[in-house]
Amino acid sequence: MKTSLFLICVLLCCYGCGSDDAAPYPTGNYESAANIKNDPVALYTKDKVITDVKFIQAFLERNQIYGTFDLTAGTAESPVHVTFDNRVADSIYFRSVSGGSGLELIFNQVYYDNNTAILLGRDSLPGSPGDDGELSCSNVSIHIRKHPLLTYCATSPIGPLVCKTRYRMPVAMVGDQLSIPIISYHFSTKNAVAECNSREKLAYGYLNAGALKTIHTQDTLVVQTRTLVLERK
Prior knowledge:
eight-stranded antiparallel beta barrel, Lipoprotein, signal, 16 strands, mainly beta, 15% helix, 3 helices
């Protein structure tokens, strides 16, 4: 456990150092455009990828999955409104609103992956300990992202293991604009013993293609990736 805590400290230090050497992304007060770019929806099972829209639509209707995906690929009205202010480097403010739900985050560290700034959340959130890395209802929200939540665990004074996470979110730099990748997904699994479902309509991040290789025979994963452009106000 001490080793895990040491590694997380090293990672955080590296992120802070890396941001000093990279060209900073454009600062300002940003707001999302009215439209969003939707990529085609795909359904993944063991060793198979299905892109037929009618097949996927029938699957979603049969399982009563509504409102998560837009089966018409291309430009569409955005289901989410985002405000983003990075004029203060150590307290980058992010807020998204979709329907009646909202998400507010403050990021205070940044490192770079080519032309993408990876923001690290300031505040710790409740988390779960590490696992075997394969998709399941309990960990799909972590493994579906290329830059997953950063997790660290420690034993509390009374004994049980306590885990915390910090949110990571990529923001791509495209000229004077910024863009945020979004994943919508529905994961389900069913065997003779148990059945479960897990979904997110708007998960901020790039799709982790490696996670698609860990799908079991009884698993089904429906995924749509999206891109939301942010414009300087």
